[in-house]
From TrEMBL:
InterPro entries named in the record: GDSL, GDSL_Est/Lipase, SGNH_hydro_sf, SGNH_plant_lipase-like
Signal sequence region: 1-29
Keyword annotations: Hydrolase, Lipid degradation, Lipid metabolism, Signal
Organism superkingdom: Eukaryota
Similarity section: Belongs to the 'GDSL' lipolytic enzyme family.
The protein's name: SGNH hydrolase-type esterase domain-containing protein
């Protein structure tokens, strides 16, 4: 239905309008496809296919609120950000690239390359042994693009990609790597140098994506990472780690500036930046508005704030997932993902900058 708002009906005959309208109803998606690149916030199962990876969620209690209580590899009690995003666009969730048969034609409504634990930098996620960094995700995308060209021809494939939405959910793992116990990054970079390094690497890779035909990019900032259970548990009284929050915000500032520059340098590019930091801070400040009674502790885990271990089969979990912001030590609950996607898709410029996804899709 939202698509109808994008169409200018001036001067069209009633017959044409009816025709267009029935076509839209047949496929009322706001975009032809969603291509997803990112980390655990949007991974819908790629890591299930990485035999050596330690970043997995294909076991209980993950998925406890998913249909049939299935542990799909989503780092969530139920659906995640990518699921709600696809639903808003009017498309099925883009399936994991690694679940596709190599010979088959890729689904025309999009593919997901996202991999839990991965980052913008190739080095990020090494503690998980096996993840798919952004550069490799783009390599995989280029293979899908080749098949699209074979299938549709160069010009139709190009047109398809130019209308498709590229959802990029990165940054958390790159940023947290700096603060990890025993991290060697502080020996190589100051915090500001590291933030600049991530942002400039991201810029180069987004340029590559633009070169492969991506025009509509949705890029998420990072949340206030110092307020995630894994950081709160280290601070007295479970308060936020203000240093980690400060650098989370600095990364987001760099990212926003980079996207503005990239747009001015890249023909036909449009983007939406999602201010996850602001959106999550708003939840922390107004928990009751959204029905949250627990903004600090993870629902699933063990130990202090349930953040000493991930959500493992041996972990305990809360009975009410609706009133928790965090599912485990680092991932939000399904309900938070849904709130965020609502803001991103149809919210004001407070959190979706410089436009929302409904406007981007037009
Ligand atoms: C990152 O990995 C890709 C292969 O996936 C490689 O092509 C690229 O050169 C690497 N980048 C850096 C900076 O090492
Ligand atoms: C960091 O690691 C050291 C050595 O393993 C350990 O003694 C210390 O408690 C750890 N610090 C935190 C904050 O986990
Ligand atoms: C989008 O937001 C506008 C204004 O708040 C509202 O009227 C409209 O129903 C919303 N549309 C969708 C699809 O959520």
């Amino acid at each position: 239905m939202e698509v109808a708002t994008c169409i200018n009906v001036n001067g069209t005959t009633l017959l044409l309008f009816v025709l267009v309208f029935s076509l839209l109803r047949a496929s009322h998606a706001a975009a032809p496809a969603v291509y997803v690149l990112g980390a655990s916030m949007v991974d819908v199962g790629n890591n299930n296919y990485l035999p050596r990876s330690l970043a997995k969620a294909d076991y209980p209690h993950n998925g406890i609120d998913y249909p049939d209580r299935k542990s799909t590899g989503r780092f969530s009690n139920g659906m995640n950000f990518a699921d709600f995003f696809a639903k808003k666009i009017g498309l099925p969730t883009s399936p994991p690239y690694l679940s596709l048969n190599n010979d088959a034609t890729p689904p025309i409504t999009g593919v997901s390359f996202a991999s839990g634990g991965s980052g913008i930098l190739n080095e990020t996620g090494q503690t998980y042994i096996q993840v798919i960094p952004l550069a490799q995700q783009i390599n995989y995308f280029s293979l899908v693009r080749n098949k699209l060209i074979q299938q549709l021809g160069q010009s139709s494939a190009q047109k398809h990609l130019s209308k498709s939405i590229f959802l990029l959910g990165f940054g958390t793992n790159d940023m947290l790597a700096y603060f990890n116990n025993g991290s060697t990054i502080p020996k190589q970079y100051t915090q500001q140098q590291y933030v600049d390094h991530i942002v400039s690497t991201f810029k180069g890779l987004l340029k590559m994506l633009h070169g492969l035909g991506a025009r509509k990019m949705v890029v998420t900032g990072v949340g206030p990472l110092g307020c995630y259970p894994l950081k709160r548990k280290l601070i007295k009284d479970g308060e936020c780690d203000v240093e980690v929050d400060f650098w989370s915000a600095r990364y987001n500032d760099g990212l926003k500036m980079m996207l503005r520059d990239l747009k001015s340098e890249s023909k036909g590019m449009k983007y939406v930046y999602f201010d996850m930091y602001g959106a999550m801070s708003n939840l922390f400040q107004n928990p009751k508005t959204y029905g949250f009674t627990d903004i600090k502790e993870a629902c699933c885990g063990l130990g202090k704030l349930n953040a000493d271990v991930p959500c493992l089969p041996t972990s305990s979990y809360c009975t009410n997932r609706q009133n928790h912001v965090f599912w485990d030590l680092i991932h939000t609950t399904e309900v938070v993902a849904s709130i965020f996607v609502d803001l991103l898709y149809n919210g004001t410029q407070k959190y979706a900058v410089p436009m929302n996804v409904r406007q981007l899709a037009c």
